[in-house]
């Protein structure tokens, strides 16, 4: 849908409004000294409304002892000055008109004995103490927040992705805790997307975080985690909220959210449910809850083990907010508790249940150009996916004494997914059916013994059993070019059963000079049983099981390994030397033929961390890697992976070699107005899996092959800059990836494919303690693919979100988005979305009414453009139509 000129006026109005805003302010500035006329650096200056607790603004004195605060309000205020070892001084101010400069110079008296009182009485928005940064929640609330995620978006330094992933810079947080207890691990989105924000008192950011308390200060950790502390009136009592909404100008649109909580000192309970068909995903990616993955962490044995499915129906969504295309009917219930059974034993239980029905509609046109062969495929896809997930987990932590802990985690997951589709492929109508089951049993035990002040021993054991059977059928036979049989429909059954068992002993020994020695020895056994059965049918009668399209493979890999790591610390430089030794015992049983392989290899790694000063840091590393092939790399028969596609492995054992180098540079630290980060990754695959493909109009067959020499270069850079005069934070991001690889298509010679992708953009978010705030940004994406021909395009997404606090009772927010596709025709290359949410408080902390509107300009479709080395694709998606919900929230 095209944008009218009136919508451009909205942006122009915003810029004019902002311009006027900047020139209708009052500046308070001055110089801070002590009694001896020495300037005071990093003194805290806090501005508040007279007789009110909420902070309007704050700042710190610079290296010259001067400060400046900008305010656009009139009235009576208090201005406080505080710093360590000095008495706090508070002054009253009255501002009767704007466009003035108020000079307030201050002299503070020394009072070292009152240090604790100064800290307690000062309500600062941000407090930095060693590895912890504490954010006062009320200082960052703007009045339009509903759930925890809304608050976190407004805290400087935290980046919240569209799907709810929380990052500090470019690093995802490990967990989000409540008063020091973790309920969801990597599945924290269930908490942040549902928990109401009103009981939150502080948000604590832990740097150099350790998931195992005995490793704090010993392991070399760069992890980060969040902890939400609660207000006193929200502790040891049952409280919660119920938010219900129903469509006003749309049929059968509804939303219901219930939270029930009790966070006591010994026991904690958090029960929540969410029912909606508005496209809202209340859980994020559920796999983060079921399979949290921690890379190279002591005690994390088996985190990377998963049994993959082989076939999907193609419910892929475009790069839009999920609610745009998610035609859902979801019901979710989560029951979570923490019990302190004694001073030594803590029990955590989690029960999660979810059902959903998702409808999906798309049309696509794919243009293939393969040497002398060119053809076009069209697809009109209508699908429905019915899902059920039941997940349970218990965690038991037993502190044997102050230095010894035993932890046990048990999980069980049962999931079922039924897919149905009606696919008009060219002129053939295919009715597809795909049923997928998942059963997961996962048990892990970790024993930790801190037998010296700086030495820790861990012993870990884990067992995983996972099954992923699939049944697929299609009522049409489009493979007459492959098979001579007179079939009219096909079926495929597949089952991947994975068992994993592993044990690991790990010692970390930190020396007095800061050096860290680690040694790890373990054994991991993984057994995969892959069975697939593809058949051709005439009506309900089986005609044949094609010989090359069946698999009965048992693949076992036993890894006996020893890892040694030494980290040398020299003042500002830290050196890392690591060697991982692996002895593998691989066995393959395929159609009663048994093969064995016993490879031995060493993986070396070196690294250097250089802290130039408090602001400049450099991290770099180099490693030479060897990767063992998995079950989906070595199967010998074709497997159907899509309605017209088949894939085949290599049959033989393989170990692939690669090397990689990393360079990371950061400038700045917490509390700085300017922060920059640059990350560069270069990798070279001495050998890698590529493909030999036969691509025809009605089918494609792909076999894995091994090719030598592939290169990849990735660069990402980000800049954060806070502008005090306009109280806004600017973020600039750039990322680029350049890769090359080789493959074979339609019996051609080995051909080279070069890909280049670049993302760059900015966003500016205000933090006014006033009636108006904004969030504006734009992002560009450039893609280029080169083979014997070159294709490229540039897309753009821009957004403008504005919020208005009319008064303490009423506020509303407007969100706008614009998408532009460079290679589409002018009539289809630009799309706009407008969302609205208005809130009116009937009774504070009790009853609130909302009016929520989605896709108000009723954009009905969205066309996406993409390129690859074999085709150009144009896909049209049907979008969630306009709806308006009237919602009511009751807090209790």
In short:
This protein is mainly beta.
Write the layout of secondary structure elements.
Blueprint: H1 5-22, E1 26-34, E2 44-49, E3 55-60, E4 66-71, E5 75-82, E6 89-95, E7 101-103, E8 106-108, H2 115-121, E9 126-129, E10 132-136, H3 137-140, H4 148-152, E11 158-160, E12 166-168, E13 171-172, E14 176-178, H5 189-192, E15 200-207, E16 224-230, E17 239-247, E18 254-263, E19 268-276, H6 287-290, H7 322-325, E20 330-340, E21 345-370, E22 373-399, E23 404-425, E24 428-452, E25 455-467, E26 470-474, E27 489-510, E28 516-538, E29 541-544, E30 550-570, E31 573-590, E32 593-597, E33 600-611, E34 616-628, H8 631-634, E35 639-642, E36 645-648, E37 655-667, E38 674-695, E39 700-723, E40 728-745, E41 751-766, E42 772-786, E43 790-805, E44 810-821, E45 830-843, E46 847-854, E47 861-867, E48 871-878, E49 883-891
């Amino acid at each position: 849908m095209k944008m009218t000129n009136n919508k451009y006026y909205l942006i122009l109005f915003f810029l004019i409004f902002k311009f006027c805003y900047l020139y209708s302010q009052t500046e308070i500035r001055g110089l801070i000294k002590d009694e001896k006329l020495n300037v005071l650096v990093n003194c805290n200056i806090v501005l508040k409304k007279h007789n009110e607790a909420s902070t309007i603004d704050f700042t710190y004195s610079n290296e010259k002892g001067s400060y400046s605060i900008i305010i656009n309000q009139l009235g009576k205020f208090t201005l406080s000055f505080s710093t360590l070892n000095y008495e706090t001084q508070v002054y009253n101010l009255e501002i009767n008109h704007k466009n003035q400069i108020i000079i307030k110079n201050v002299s503070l008296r020394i009072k070292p004995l009152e240090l604790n009182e100064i800290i307690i009485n000062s309500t600062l928005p941000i407090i930095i103490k060693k590895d912890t940064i504490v954010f006062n929640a009320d200082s960052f609330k703007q009045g339009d927040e509903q759930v925890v995620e809304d608050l976190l978006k407004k805290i400087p330094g935290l980046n919240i992705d569209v799907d709810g992933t929380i990052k500090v810079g470019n690093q995802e947080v490990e967990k989000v805790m409540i008063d020091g207890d973790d309920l969801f691990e990597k599945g924290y989105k269930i908490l942040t997307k549902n928990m109401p924000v009103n009981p939150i008192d502080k948000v604590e950011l832990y740097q150099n975080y350790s998931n195992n308390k005995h490793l704090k200060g010993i392991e070399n950790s760069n992890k980060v985690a969040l902890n939400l502390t609660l207000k006193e009136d929200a502790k040891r009592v049952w409280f919660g909220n119920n938010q219900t909404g129903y469509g006003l100008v749309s049929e059968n649109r509804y939303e219901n959210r219930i939270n029930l909580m009790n966070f006591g000192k010994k026991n904690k309970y958090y029960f929540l449910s969410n029912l909606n068909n508005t496209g809202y995903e209340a859980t994020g990616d559920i796999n983060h809850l079921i399979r949290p993955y921690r890379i190279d962490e002591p005690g994390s044995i088996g985190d990377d083990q998963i049994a993959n499915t082989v076939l999907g129906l193609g419910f892929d969504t475009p790069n839009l907010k999920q609610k745009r295309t998610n035609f859902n009917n979801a019901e979710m219930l989560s029951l979570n508790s923490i019990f302190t059974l004694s001073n030594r034993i803590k029990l955590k239980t989690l029960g999660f249940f979810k059902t959903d029905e998702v409808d999906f509609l798309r049309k696509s046109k794919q243009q293939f150009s393969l040497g002398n062969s060119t053809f076009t495929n069209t697809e009109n896809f209508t699908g429905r996916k019915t899902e059920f997930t039941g997940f349970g987990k218990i965690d038991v932590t037993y502190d044997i004494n102050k230095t010894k802990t035993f932890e046990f985690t048990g999980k069980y997951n049962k999931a079922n997914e039924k897919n149905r589709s009606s696919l008009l492929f060219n002129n053939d109508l295919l009715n597809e059916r795909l049923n997928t089951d998942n059963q997961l049993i996962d048990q892990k035990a970790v024993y930790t013994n801190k037998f010296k002040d700086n030495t820790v021993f861990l012993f870990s054991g884990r067992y995983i059993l996972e099954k992923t059977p699939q049944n697929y059928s299609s009522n049409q036979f489009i493979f007459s070019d492959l098979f001579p049989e007179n079939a009219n429909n096909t079926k495929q059954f597949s089952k991947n059963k994975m068992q994993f068992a592993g044990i690991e002993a790990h010692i970390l020994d930190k020396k007095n000079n800061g050096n860290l020695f680690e040694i790890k020895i373990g054994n991991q056994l993984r057994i995969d049983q892959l069975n697939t059965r593809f058949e051709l049918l005439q009506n309900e009668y089986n005609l044949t099981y094609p010989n090359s399209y069946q698999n009965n493979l048992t693949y076992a890999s036993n890894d006996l390994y020893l890892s040694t790591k030494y980290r040398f610390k020299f003042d500002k430089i830290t050196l890392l030397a690591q060697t991982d030794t692996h002895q593998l015992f691989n066995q393959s049983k395929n159609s009663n033929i048994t093969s064995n392989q016993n490879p031995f290899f060493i993986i070396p790694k070196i690294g250097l961390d250089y802290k130039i000063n408090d602001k400049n840091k450099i991290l770099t590393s180099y490693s030479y890697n060897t990767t063992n092939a998995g079950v989906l790399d070595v199967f010998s028969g074709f497997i159907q992976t899509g309605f017209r596609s088949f894939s085949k492995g290599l049959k033989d054992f393989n170990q692939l070699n690669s090397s990689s180098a990393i360079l990371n540079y950061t400038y700045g630290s917490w509390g700085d107005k300017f922060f920059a980060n640059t990350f560069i990754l270069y990798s070279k695959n001495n050998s890698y899996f590529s493909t030999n493909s036969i691509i025809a109009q009605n089918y494609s067959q792909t076999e894995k092959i091994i090719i030598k020499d592939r290169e990849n270069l990735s660069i990402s850079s980000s800049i954060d800059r806070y502008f005090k005069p306009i109280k806004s934070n600017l973020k600039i991001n750039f990322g680029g990836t350049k890769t090359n690889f080789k493959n074979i298509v339609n019996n051609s010679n080995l051909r080279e494919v070069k890909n280049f992708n670049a993302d760059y953009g900015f966003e500016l978010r205000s933090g006014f303690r006033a009636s108006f705030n904004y969030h504006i940004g734009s992002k560009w994406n450039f893609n280029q693919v080169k083979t014997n021909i070159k294709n490229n395009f540039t897309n753009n997404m821009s957004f403008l979100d504005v919020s208005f606090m009319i008064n303490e009772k009423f506020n509303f927010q407007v969100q706008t988005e614009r998408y532009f596709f460079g290679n589409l025709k002018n009539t289809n290359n630009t799309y706009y979305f407008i969302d609205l949410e208005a809130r009116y408080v009937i009774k504070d902390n009790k009853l609130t009414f909302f009016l929520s509107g989605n896709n108000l300009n009723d954009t009905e479709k969205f066309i996406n453009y993409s390129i690859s080395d074999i085709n150009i694709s144009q896909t049209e998606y049907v979008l969630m139509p306009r709806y308006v919900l009237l919602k009511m929230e009751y807090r209790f």
